[in-house]
Amino acid sequence: MSEDQILSMLEAWDGDGVVLRFDKPTGTWMVIALHSSALGPPTGGTRLKVYPGLRDAVRDAMRLAEGMTYKWAGLGLEYGGGKAVLAITSPLDAAERRGLMHRYGKLLETLGTFFTGADLGTSAVDIAHMAERSGQVLGINRESGEAMDPGPFTARGVLAGIKAAVRHLDGAEGLAGKSVLVQGLGGVGRPLGRLLAAEGAEVLLCDAQLERAERMAEQIGGRAVPSNRVFTERCDVFSPCAVGGVLNEETISTLGCRIVAGSANNQLQVEDDADRLAKWGVLYVPDYIVNAGGAMAISLINDGMHDRDQLFQRVDRIGEAVAGILEEAAASRSTPLATARRRVDRLLADHEETLAPSSGLA
Ligand code: NAD
Fold first, then answer.
1. Full-model pTM
2. In the structure, which protein residues have their CB atom closer than 6 angstroms to any atom of ligand 1?
3. Which residues contact 125 (CB under 8 A, 6 or more apart)?
4. 105-135 in b/e burial notation, b at 16+ Cβ within 10 A?
5. Parallel, antiparallel, or unpaired for β 202-206 and 179-183?
6. pLDDT digits over 133-162, tens only?
7. Which residue(s) pair with 247 in the sheet?
8. Ligand 1 atom, smallest distance to 243 CA
9. What is the mean pLDDT of the chain?
10. Which residues are CB-neighbours of 246 under 8 A, at least 6 positions away?
């Protein structure tokens, strides 16, 4: 790891800035990347992970913070882009972890600019511990101290996006008779699988743990697909809900689907993969638009909306956002990714010189 490389990365970044704090008791670097406050306060999850070095942690936080700027703006919500990572060096025991979350919570409170919630590696318990030291933590029921699970809301948004994409390609209302392959049966993939089955779709299920897919297939009347067939399996929709980077030079030319729409962050290995997908005849729904349901629900709850049905209805509007992007992309002969980016860049340019509007988060 080279200090110079980190400094050049910080200098070259177009974001607002990066906060670094070393936590001596656990040897953890806390990295908070603030990309943009043009539309509102920087807001994004906190990831906990072992990184090869500090440079990788800083790079990940910056990239994810930028993604959050696009996610919020793409949905027209008044939040800015930010993301944090807690770069641990090895797994922590419960007491060490609690101490880390408390000290991180104190840092959040001192900064007073960054709002956060759960992300990869951070649990509801971690979030509750952060919230014991800071009011900057979202997705917490302040009376019970319990953290909410964003998975069902994310799943609902993905479903709305899948339906919009199918309507765009086939003119079909609903998913009856359409095959959808869900990769990753965790907090998002499980509720998504159930929603798809309820819609009358043919549900194909894949997980790194095959038994998990087989068990769920039995429960909802779907079919398990082994991991080595996940890309090539013939289906209408492939929904990556496991890990990032699954769409790349190697996998795209083997895809057996017509549409990709799923919750995993950073599904494309590089941006050019969006063009590669278009050339292969696959309609790609940008991940940061279609996977925003959980973040959206958390922000709405924070703004005072608590009724679950009302929250689901708002999340369903992700379908309208997806439909709009797909129509504009088709009309302008560009990819949905380039169209989404153009829309957001327009919006951010309009706000560039204005101060962040009130978001109701205070
Ligand atoms: P999770 O950890 O609960 O579940 C992930 C599942 O994927 C696990 O069942 C795991 O066994 C499986 N898996 C891991 N690698 C796999 C592989 N290579 N092939 C097949 N299965 C694999 O995660 P989650 O909360 O369901 O989130 C899924 C993805 O969606 C993540 O990339 C996450 O960053 C993203 N995301 C989640 C939310 C949310 O609300 N939870 C919101 C936005 C984005």
1. 0.88
2. 120, 150-151, 154, 183-189, 206-209, 212, 227, 241-243, 263-265, 291, 294
3. 147
4. bebbeeeebbbbbbbeebeeebbbbbbebbe
5. parallel
6. 999 999 887 677 777 888 999 999 999 999
7. 268
8. 32
9. 93
10. 183, 231, 240, 264, 267
Q: What is the mean pLDDT of residues 199-212?
A: 98
- The C-alpha atoms of residue 154 and residue 139 are separated, in whole angstroms, by 14
**CA–CA–CA angle 183, 61, 350 (5° rounding):** 95
Using the mean position of ligand 1's atoms as its centre, give its distance from the Cα of residue 186 in Å.
5
Specify whether 106 is catalytic.
Answer: no
Q: Please state the atom number of ligand 1 nearest to the C-alpha of residue 155.
A: 40
Q: Tell me how far apart the alpha carbons of residues 200 and 174 are, in angstroms, rounded to a whole number.
A: 8
Mean per-residue pLDDT, 69-77: 86
Summarised one tens digit per residue, pLDDT across range 13-46 is: 999 999 999 999 999 999 999 999 999 999 999 9
Average pLDDT over every residue of 96-115:
98
Q: Tell me, in angstroms, the distance from the centre of ligand 1 to residue 8's CA.
A: 32
263, 265, 268, 291: residue to mutate for ligand 1 pocket, most atoms within 8 A of CB: 263
Q: Cα(67)–Cα(265) distance, rounded to whole angstroms?
A: 9
Helix (H, G, I), strand (E, B) or coil at 215: helix
Number of CB atoms found within 10 A of residue 256's CB: 15
DSSP alpha helices (H): ranges in 132-243? 151-170, 189-198, 210-220
Phi then psi dihedrals of residue 165, to 5 deg: -70, -40
Q: What is the mean pLDDT of residues 97-108?
A: 98
Cross-strand pairs, 259: 237, 283
pLDDT value of residue 344: 87
Which residue, by CA, sits nearest to atom 39 of ligand 1? 151
Catalytic residue, from 71, 83, 163, 178: name it: 83
Ligand 1 center–CA 120 separation, angstroms:
8
Distance 268 CA to ligand 1 centre (A): 15
Q: In this structure, what token pair is assigned to residue 159?
A: 């479903």
> Which of 207, 311, 315 is the pocket-test mutation for ligand 1 (most atoms within 8 Å of CB)?
207
What stretch of H or E contains 346?
helix 336-351
Residue 184: pLDDT band (50, 70, 90) is very high
Strand partners, 23: 28
